[in-house]
Amino acid sequence: MASSIQQSRSRFRRKIRILPELARADVTAAMEAGAKEVTALQKRLVPKDKGELEKSIQWGFGDAPKGPGILSLGSVTSRSGDVKISIWGGGIKAFYIRFVEFGTHGAEGHGATRAQPFFFPAWRALKRRVKSRVTRAGTKAIKKAAKG
Known about the structure:
Layout: H1 2-45, H2 52-56, E1 58-61, E2 70-77, E3 84-90, H3 97-102, H4 119-147
Antiparallel strand pairs: 1-3, 2-3
Helix pairs in contact: 1-4
């Protein structure tokens, strides 16, 4: 009887040990798919002029770059804290991303421009889908670990 309990415990410990590796891969893939989907929608919604603003919208692992004109959507970090994805736009050539997203007030000698939001609305439109995808990936990894 005792050996059966010990075998069950060792099987359980083995499954728990492989869980983080399985979950990390699946959750990272889901986060990456979500970032690609959000940036694709942002690029479709951005007002087209010279194309610099569209080219500046990017995503990557880790923190968004620092610098003048960068508008960061923020970062999404996995619960374990080892995977972080950021979405950003702007930069030296597209420093005006904030002016397009939020508009400007008229100052003396300058006219006001209306807001043409594209950056944050894309995230709000897809947030639920992206979060669900990441949650499903984690659940799937747990089930995969439980099977063996």
